[in-house]
Design a protein that fits this description.
Elements lengths: L1 E5 L4 H12 L6 E5 L8 E4 L2 E4 L3 H6 L4 E4 L3 H13 L3 E4 L15 H4 L9 E3 L3 H17 L1 E11 L5 H12 L29 H13 L6 E9 L5 E9 L5 H10 L3 E3 L11 H4 L5 E8 L6 E8 L3 H17 L4
Parallel strand pairs: 1-2, 1-5, 5-6, 6-7, 8-9, 11-12
Antiparallel strand pairs: 3-4, 8-10, 10-13, 12-13
C-alpha cells in the first residue's frame, strides 16, 4: 500500500511516519514529501533511509493514501491534485473540515460518514478530537444541550518554532519568536487568529467541528482557548449541560467503556489527568468528573490528550486503517 506523507519533515509529519511504523500499517512504499527546502533530505522509515521528494513527485507516484500535515494553503492547492489521480487524501489542516461534502472523522465516533469514492477526508482539530472522544458516549445517552470550554493548550500545537522559542527562553537564549510574548512562565488567551467578533479561529473550530462530528447542529458551544508553556498535550475544562439528567456513576462507566478513553480520576490519591501523563500516548484521559451543582443536569470534566498523537497523527492513521480495512479507497 503506497503511502505519501505530505509535510513529512514537520513535527506532526514525523509523528505520522512514526505511528505508521508503530501500528504496522501495510506500507509497501513510503513517499515523504515536503517543501522545496527539504527535498533530498532523508527520513528513516522501518530502519531504512527514504529521500524526501517534492509534492508534485508524490502526486505523480499515485499513492493509495496521501496523509497531509502541511498547512491549509498546501492542502487547498494539492489535495485536489492527489484526489484527481485516485489517491485518498487524509488532511490534518483546517482546509476541508467544514466542507459539507468532506467527512470530518474521529473513527471511534463517526467512521460511518466515510463512503466509498470519498477522496478527501478531514482530520479534526486536536482540541476538538480529544473533547468529542469523551463527550460522544454521553451525548448519545443524555443529549448535550450546551458546552462551556476553557482550553490549556500546549505550544506544540503551533509547531517547532514555538517549542524552540520556549526552549530558548528557558536557556536564556534570544531567538526567533513564534509569539509576540514570551511563552515560559506565562499563558495567553490566544490560539489561532482573531475573528471580527473577538473569538479566535481555534475557538470557532471547537464550535463548528463539535457539531459536525456529533451530527447535531443544535449543540450550543462557547470556548476560550489559552496557550500554556507545556509540551506534553492539551488540557480542557469542559462544562456540559444535558437535556436529560444523569447519575455520576453512569457517566463514569460510559466514558470508561468508550474505546481510546481512560477515566483517570481519584482525587483522594491526587489522581487526575495531566499533560505529563498523556505525553506520547494515544489515549484521551478524563478526570475531575463531578456534577455542577450551580445548574441542573450539568457536569464538569477535565480532558487531557497528546495533541500531536491522538490530536493529529494517530487519528489520521486510524482513518487510513479504517478505509483500508473496509476497502473504501
Amino acid at each position: 500500500m503506497k503511502t505519501a506523507v505530505v509535510g513529512a519533515t514537520g513535527m506532526v509529519g514525523r509523528t505520522m511516519i512514526k505511528v505508521l511504523e508503530e501500528r504496522k500499517f501495510p506500507v509497501t512504499e513510503l513517499i515523504p514529501a515536503a517543501s522545496e527546502k527539504s527535498i533530498g533530505k532523508e527520513i528513516i522509515f522501518q530502519g531504512k533511509p527514504v529521500k524526501v521528494v517534492s509534492v508534485m513527485e508524490a502526486v505523480e507516484a499515485k499513492p493509495v493514501f496521501a496523509i497531509f500535515s502541511a498547512g491549509a494553503n498546501t492542502s487547498k492547492e494539492w489535495a485536489p491534485a492527489f484526489a484527481q489521480n485516485g489517491t485518498v487524501v487524509i488532511d490534518n489542516s483546517s482546509a476541508w473540515r467544514m466542507d459539507p461534502n468532506v467527512p470530518l472523522v474521529v473513527p471511534e465516533i463517526n467512521s460511518h460518514t466515510i463512503k466509498k469514492g470519498d477522496r478527501i477526508i478531514a482530520n479534526p482539530n486536536c482540541s476538538t478530537i480529544q473533547m468529542v472522544m469523551a463527550l460522544a458516549p454521553l451525548h448519545r445517552k443524555y443529549k448535550i444541550k450546551r458546552l462551556v470550554i476553557a482550553t490549556y493548550q500546549s505550544v506544540t500545537g503551533t509547531g517547532v518554532k514555538a517549542v524552540t522559542q520556549l526552549e530558548n527562553e528557558r536557556k536564556g537564549i534570544k531567538g526567533e519568536m513564534a509569539y509576540p510574548y514570551q511563552i515560559d512562565l506565562n499563558c495567553f488567551p490566544h490560539g489561532g487568529s482573531f475573528n471580527s467578533d473577538g473569538y479566535t479561529t481555534e475557538e470557532q473550530k471547537l464550535v463548528d467541528e463539535t457539531r459536525k462530528i456529533l451530527e447535531d447542529p443544535t449543540i450550543q458551544v462557547t470556548a476560550t482557548v489559552v496557550r500554556i508553556p507545556v509540551i506534553g498535550g492539551h488540557s480542557e475544562a469542559v462544562n456540559v449541560e444535558f437535556e436529560n439528567d444523569f447519575h455520576i456513576d453512569d457517566v463514569r462507566f460510559l466514558i470508561s467503556q468508550f474505546p481510546g478513553v481512560v477515566v483517570y480520576d481519584n482525587p483522594a490519591e491526587n489522581k487526575y489527568p495531566m499533560p505529563i501523563i498523556a505525553h506520547n500516548r494515544d489515549e484521551v484521559f478524563v478526570g475531575r468528573i463531578r456534577r455542577d451543582y450551580s445548574r441542573e443536569k450539568c457536569l464538569n470534566l477535565w480532558i487531557v490528550s497528546d495533541n500531536i498523537r491522538k490530536g493529529a497523527a494517530t487519528n489520521a492513521i486510524q482513518i487510513a486503517e479504517y478505509m483500508a480495512e473496509k476497502r473504501l479507497y
